[in-house]
User: Fold this.
Amino acid sequence: MKILIANIGSTSFKYRLFDMTTEAQLAKGGYERVTDYGDAIDKSLAEMKASGALPRLEDLTAVGFKTVLAKGIYGCAELTEDVLRAMEQMNDVAPSHNPPYIAGIRKFREKLPRTPLVGLFETAWWMNAPEAAMRYAVPEQWAEWGVRRYGFHGASHRYIAERVHQLLGGTDLKIISCYLGGSNSVGATHGTRGVGNSLGMSPQSGLPHNNRVGDLDSFAIPFLMKQHGLTLDQIVRAMNKEGGMLGLSGVSNDMRDIQEAAAKGNARAQLALEVFVHSIRHWIGAYLFQLNGADAIVFTAGIGENQKEIREMVCAGLDWFGIRLDPQKNNAYQRGQEAVISTTDSRVKIMVVPTNEEIVVAREVKKLLESKP
Ligand code: AMP
Assistant:
């Protein structure tokens, strides 16, 4: 059973091909600065044919997608025209994510009309979170229209939770996972239940992201419109492209550049780092309460795996909670490893675990196909 997982960004196309009988990865590749998804799909399929990973298109059982958000659809679903329309209804909430995914999925349908296309929505892991953690205090009508917290990065937080259960042993662990990369979130899982995520109704909320603002008091918007004459489109664009770590630092959206500038004495870059860390700690604190403690705090993704200084800042001064980072283990950590970086007497294990969202999607696609009569 060969399942291709397509990861579609606004200007990128990446893929991984799995043999889901063994979960072996057969191929991996992708393109940046993509202007035509059809072209990227053709080139990728040709590469897989040339390498022998996928000699015949008929051997492809399904294509899976880490889809983001659709109105009224939360789990794993075959991407019918109705589901694509439900995704379109949420384009305003996920403007950087849904339109490219919809365009890419439609291209796949053109090229592979008989192959099932399946999406695992990023909201899926939070479907069973307590209602009290997911509601905004808005008029009931708004809630019925879908104004509520959904939570995202579900495939990644799920992968981390399942992997940490395997690594530490146990079935009912309390895990706080910090996904820190281009977009960022802190998630809480208890056993097999995702119970909270810092991302709310849209993937723009929660922690500051590379270019996206993260949490912002909604009344900033009428203030900017009425007092400063900005249009709604200008505000939405700025919240998407000019906010986050870029807006704060004025240097870059990349944490490496920000760290370098801060080390040279750039005060805005230093403040950007501190705001980022403050926000991560805010959410870790919230989940320590919600879970009544934690077995593990886990770092993953580009920043989580590469930036020991950020891990150190996040974990500083938390002995009262039984959270003690081992500086030597933290400094010695190399990307790609799965490691515990806390001291031996730390009550909460601090870990770094590389994520693998694609395998979570592939497993769910397989499960959905096998459940069909
Ligand atoms: P991701 O979206 O997971 O690829 O993470 C991207 C972010 O991770 C970048 O914006 C960088 O800030 C950070 N990052 C990626 N690679 C490195 C690295 N080798 N060293 C430090 N930071 C990195």
